[in-house]
Amino acid sequence: MSVPMMETAVPAVTPTRPRRGWRSPSFVIGAVLLVAVLALALMSLFWTPYPLDQAQPGARLSQPSAQHWAGTDRLGRDQFTQLMLGARTAVGIGLSSVAVAFAIGIPLGLLAAAAGRLVDNAVIGVIDIVIAFPTLLLAMLLVTVYGASTAVAVSAIGIGVSAEVARLTRISASRIFTQDYVLAARTCGTGPLMILFRHVLPNIWHTLLVQATLAFGIAVIAEASLSYLGLGTPPPAPSWGRMLQEAQSTVSVAPWNVLLPGIAVAVAVIGVNLLGDGLREILDPQLRQERRVAGR
């Protein structure tokens, strides 16, 4: 006589999926603000309301109107044109600075995580020294040697931000190097470069992507600060920071000339920071789990 076997119910396991971007308010708001800045920058490549150097002496410090959407400055130049071209400068320097920071920081961080204690301590010492130097001070030193230019501003900002990128890369990669699958790969004779490209970088790219958005915001603020101090992109290239510097003497007469570039900087920085927070929420499963538990 056969005894029927009892079936054991196995609970279904639902795979963890990244949260959709449109469900994250931070991601949506940040993306909208950043797209607005990028749209201004891209549009300036093909069209501006007026030429940059077109001054109208009879329309100095005019209020926003149908002819001049953001008013004019003390020389009679259209402010909205300068805002558009300033967005292009901010985006260009921001992206270039992030590229420099990642080109320096990621290799340093991976070297510190993969090498021995002696190399690790040496790299940490270099990172601490760079972090101790504020970006503005580093820019002043470079400007003293090479003169004010866009390349010097990009280099100064990129080097300053690279220290944080290197430290984050080292921490994230060191955590991956302790995983069992990496130890198994080493046991099987997999080379260090193959481990980096096959196991380490695929598991830390989301962390580096979030860091890239934050680094972009830092670069935008640094560029505006350098231009305000006269250490950034030299004239006639427009910059939000230089617009603030030029408008401070007429703030009592034309306050909109100070408010608009300040709002532009704030929108760009808030946008990328909200976007970074939204990406972290979408890509980090541990953070999603913590917020899900907290919401119960």
Number of strands: 0
CATH architecture of the domain at 91-253: Orthogonal Bundle
Q: Which percent range describes the beta-strand content?
A: under 5%
pLDDT average, as an integer? 82
- Spatial extent as radius of gyration: 25 Å
> Low-confidence stretches at least 5 residues in length (pLDDT < 50)?
1-18
**Helical content class:** 55-70%
The chain-level structural class is mainly alpha
CATH class membership of the domain at 91-253? Mainly Alpha
By CATH's scheme, which homologous superfamily of the domain at 91-253 applies?
MetI-like
Main sheet specs: none
Order of helices and strands: HHHHHHHHHH
Structure notes:
It is built from ten helices and no strands. The chain is mainly α and 296 residues long. The protein has a domain of 163 residues: MetI-like (MetI-like fold, Orthogonal Bundle). Helix 3 runs antiparallel to helix 5, helix 5 runs antiparallel to helix 7 and helix 7 packs parallel to helix 8. It is elongated and about 80 Å long. The N terminus is likely disordered.
Would you summarize the structure shown here?
It contains ten helices and no strands. The chain has 296 residues and is mostly helical. The chain has a domain at 91-253: MetI-like fold, CATH 1.10.3720.10.
Helix-strand layout with pairing:
Blueprint lengths: L24 H19 L35 H36 L2 H16 L2 H12 L3 H28 L2 H8 L4 H37 L11 H8 L8 H28 L1 H11 L1
Helix pairs in contact: 1-2, 1-9, 2-3, 2-5, 2-7, 3-5, 4-5, 5-7, 7-8, 7-9, 8-9
